[in-house]
Write a structure and sequence with these properties.
By secondary structure, the protein is mainly β. The chain is globular. About 0% of the residues are buried. It holds the Pfam family DUF223. It comes from Zizania palustris.
Length: about 100
């Protein structure tokens, strides 16, 4: 599930939430996901409110997922041209060896 912080609350939370950290949220609302540019297929999303509370989790299991994504085969990318339902980006992984 993904979350949205409306503009009115953005200033409040940008000082609290940092990338690559894990948080627990309370006092939020669950709403239908937006029709366009969803990060991944999901029926619902979280929306922060002025009363949403955020606390950082310090004891995170080693196997806790850091990233969530949906891969689309390269040959299927052209089928997404002009579609706005999902955010579509490209990840390029280059493997190389460095001689000693």
């Amino acid at each position: 599930m993904y979350a949205e912080i409306p503009g009115a609350q953005a200033e409040k939370f940008k000082e609290i939430i940092e990338e690559s950290k894990i948080y627990t949220f309370t006092k939020f609302v669950v709403v239908p996901s937006k029709p366009a540019y969803k990060p991944f297929p999901n029926k619902y999303m979280l929306r922060f409110t002025p009363w949403t509370q955020v606390s950082e989790e310090k004891d995170v299991p080693d196997d806790f997922l850091s990233y969530v994504y949906t891969l689309v085969p390269f040959l299927s990318l052209s089928s997404r041209v002009g579609l706005q339902e999902y955010f579509t980006g490209m990840v390029l992984i280059v493997l190389c060896s460095i001689p000693n």
